[in-house]
Amino acid sequence: MYASLIFLYAAHLHLAAVSAVNMEDAGNTAPAVAMCILIFFTGLVVRILYGLATRGLQARTQAWTKR
Questions:
Q1: Closest Cα to residue 38, out of 23, 51, 55?
Q2: Cβ neighbours for 31, distance < 8 A, ≥ 6 positions apart
Q3: In this predicted structure, what is the pLDDT of residue 26?
Q4: Which residues of 44-63 are buried (b: 16+ CB within 10 A; e: fewer)?
Q5: pTM of whole model > 0.85?
Q6: Buried-most residue among 3, 8, 14, 36 (CB within 10 A)?
Q7: What is the secondary structure of 4-45 as a DSSP string?
Q8: What is the helix (H) or strand (E) element at residue 57, kind and residue range?
Q9: Interval 3-59: pLDDT, tens
Q10: pLDDT over 70 at 66, yes or no
């Protein structure tokens, strides 16, 4: 499975993933790992919340199909 991302942002903003790579390149390994862990868990929480929201929404909107 392939994924594609497009980021639209202002020039003065920095993406967290790019910042983590820059930290690692600068020799700051521990802060880079901490940033990557935060990125991972943030994505995980968003996916769980999205899954719960869509499951609840589908249960309410598709209840007529279960009859």
A1: 23
A2: 23
A3: 94
A4: eeeeeeeeeeeeeeeeeeee
A5: no
A6: 36
A7: -------TT---HHHHHHHHHHTT-HHHHHHHHHHHHHHHHH
A8: helix 29-61
A9: 776 767 778 888 888 889 899 999 999 999 999 999 999 999 999 999 999 998 888
A10: no
Burial-class residue 3 by CB neighbours within 10 Å (0-12, 13-18, 19+). Answer: exposed
Judged on CB neighbours under 10 Å (0-12, 13-18, 19+), 20 is buried
Distance CA 33, CA 62 (A): 43
Q: Of 29, 7, 28, 32, which is closest to residue 19 (Cα–Cα)?
A: 32
Given this model, what pLDDT does residue 49 score?
Answer: 95
The residue with tokens 């609840």 is 56
